[in-house]
Amino acid sequence: MSVDAVKIDKAISGGLAAICAWCEHYWNGQAGCGLQNRCGGPMVGMSFPEYRGAFNKARFCFICGREADHGIEIGDGMIAACDKDIPTVMSLIHSRPGVRVDVKEKQALSLDALLGGEVG
Ligand SMILES: [Zn+2]
Question: Contact 38/18 with Cβ under 8 angstroms?
């Protein structure tokens, strides 16, 4: 199922994380994706492992969907966040002891990390 850009924008405006709004599982589910127990972000120590969509999660902010300024290595994956949202991300991570995150300037990341990943 392809995902409609207007629906995506509306969902993000309504407070849904951009990565969820772009994810096919979210729109295929009856009430959200139903994968909350095995997928999630840095707040639960994961890099949205079940995410499936056209949006490159290593390149765009998982919260707002804009071009990201920071890469976040977490678990065995990578996600990204913009300057505006990184403080929120870090404060949520810091409230979860035991979760290890490396935040890097985007420029420090390899091109493969930025352009690769599980797109589509
Ligand atoms: Zn953002």
Answer: no
